[in-house]
Design goal:
Layout lengths: L2 E8 L7 H18 L3 E10 L1 E4 L2 E4 H4 L1 H13 L2 E8 L9 H21 L5 E5 H15 L4 E5 L4 H7 L6
Parallel strand pairs: 1-2, 1-6, 2-5, 6-7
Antiparallel strand pairs: 3-4
Helix pairs in contact: 4-5
Amino acid sequence: MTVRIMYLIALERVFDNAIFDNQVKKLLLKIKGDHGRDLELTLLVLLPWIELTRRGIYSNFWRYKNELKALKQELSDKSIRLILVRTPFPSAFFQMKLLGLVWFSLIAMPIVWYWIFVKEVQVIHCRYYYATLAALFARRLFQRQIKVIFDVRTLLPELGVEDGAWMK
């Protein structure tokens, strides 16, 4: 039986980002390498279509077109599917905590539902609160047995083991 896992990233850069490279990409490559054909792995990235910065306004999908294409090819070579979704969520909303969270959850919900129900994803590994809330809402509304994992975006588990606070 093939297990379908979706790694869900929201509003986080997946190009020119050392945290993504060292924590996410290496993890995905290791998991896929260890489990091969028994695992269908999808990285779903919900990026703001428009970035509003002090240096101006730009589109992630136009400005970083080559970087995103290269990442997609690199992961595809290892049988990991990369799906990039343009969200009508300007990066400036990220500072608007509650309003931003509600708006993002509403616009992300149909995308997450699609992957849960049409693609029959069984596990959703989420980075950051925005992605986790959308996944939890989708799971709750449709009462489907899906495991949602919240990634605290730190090396806390590794540090706990290293410090001896947690068992290996």
